[in-house]
Amino acid sequence: MNTLGRQKYTAFAVRYALLLAGALIVTVPFIYMVSVSLKPQAYTFEMPPQLFPHDITFEHYREVLAKQNLVVYFANSLLVAVASTSGTVLIASLLAYAFARMKFAGKRVLFSVLLIGMMIPPVMLIIPQFLVAKELSLLNSLLGLILVYITMSLSMQTFLLRGVFAGVPQDLLDAALIDGGGQGTLFWRIVLPLSRPGLAAVTIFTFLYSWDEFPWAHVAIRETAKRTLPVAIALFRRPDLTEWGQLFAMSIIALLPVLVVYVIFQRYFVAGIATTGLKG
Amino acid sequence: MSQANLNVDSRRASASITVKPRLRLSAQQVTPYLFLLPGIILFVTFILWPMLYSLRISFYDWNIVKAERSVYVGLQNYQDALDDPIFQRAASNTLFYVLVTVPGQMIFGTLAALLLNQRFPGRALFRTLYYLPVITSWVIVTLLFEFLFNGQAGLINSILESAGLIREPIRWLADSRLIMIPLTLLGIWKGIGWTAVIVLAGLQSIPMQLYEAAAVDGAGTRQRFTSVTLPLLRPTLVFLVVVLTIGAMNVYISGLLMTRGGDPMNESHFVLTWMDKQTFENFKFGQGAAISYLLTAVVFVVSLVQIRLLQREVDYT
What we know:
The complex is a heterodimer. By secondary structure, chain A is mainly α. Helix content of chain A is 75%, strand content 0%. Chain A has helices at residues 2-38, 59-67, 70-101, 107-119, 126-135, 142-166, 170-178, 183-194, 196-212, 215-220, 229-236, 244-276. Chain A is globular. By secondary structure, chain B is mainly alpha-helical. At the A-B interface, helix 1, helix 3, helix 4, helix 5 and helix 6 of A face helix 1, helix 2, helix 4, helix 5 and helix 6 of B.
């Protein structure tokens, strides 16, 4: 009896110790990043390194907000992420509704073709996408980013939503059909409102993806004023960079919306990954 | 079951009732395609057409300024890519990255999931913390690791020095072999949270009765793990290995930023950073397209193996 209690207690302590060690490994780099962004420039590489700064200064934040067009980059990122997310939610829902709830010729073939989009590495498409975007005058334009982000998200999000929409009880649709509703009504009035958790998962996946995306934005955008945050941050780091405080101040500003979205939608997010195995 | 069939039947019946006039029928046939149209247009323009376009480019000495002046060279681009020592080095670096980061993420992710798979105070907080690197952009975490592994006064060097493990700071980023250490550690660090969430979902789908039955049969903790948890978790683990492998083969942003385009001497490339450089710096679009198709072929084979393995799994569970 007593040894069992002690065993349980030890197991409990070991569990906490391991979890704490893991949490430290994960968070210390972030804490250090915040700390460097708040230290005066001279203390960036102080010896020995201090995890928590002695004198706190906001000079790096002031500098990047004043000098680095950061407001513009932030606005670009926000516009691109919001537009890509709304576009993806709408277009993937339409696709998913057709695949889950409608009968049409070529359904199986079309769905298999759509799934190809989940298998090809996105970076491999960059060369031809660059050439296509050039022909459509979509290089150097935020619209070019938005259209590509929506397209790259379609396969996975349609796959996710098809499963969600298929779970809406047929009785409800039948009732609406008898009342004279068309497919548009069924889609808009019944299936979408009943699929809020699924739509929330799509929203957060697409928002994070389009907010964080770097390879396509890096290739497609040349003009300074059209950069998104990841591109601006990557290009801020020159070979002889010393202003790490400013770089991390920019990074933390870029990270804030991600944290907000993640904390708000966390419940749906975890469920979304768990049911579909989508990568965040 | 019979309920579902009944529903389908009643739906068919109601559909056939509404389909009396001919015009109505054709509208019903057209509607699905209206739902599909926006998605199809985007998919064809930015995925399907580019894929075929890229295949064509890979057979040409592509002229970026005047496409019609491009010269057909057959499989020469593929041959050249494979013969190129830089490509070979990039391929072996990528293989190394896969072989280290995939087991690393699997081991630590599974461990984290096992630790998190019970109700206890602070569990949600730990889960959120572990997920932090997953939602942070690759650009930010790469630059963060570059800073931590700084050759003179980085945090890692000073920790190792104060622990007495090294005498002099190590210049992690200046050597094409050493730089693989921060790159692989970053790959593992960033992926643990995602792996853990997937394993957790797998763990939670195992019916409690199986554990109870095993306990009744006198199985201890360890035995319950090896005879219940592991076998039932296998499909999840197989799925993870494949997805993580594909992800690792596509390593790109971290390499591009940390090695500054393959420095020193193009020895620290991954396949995709070399593709990027050949295409957008050396303007060899045909070469770049061939390299990306070579990688896609490997990814495709891995996906097929995945489907095989998963199907076999279904057969005997």
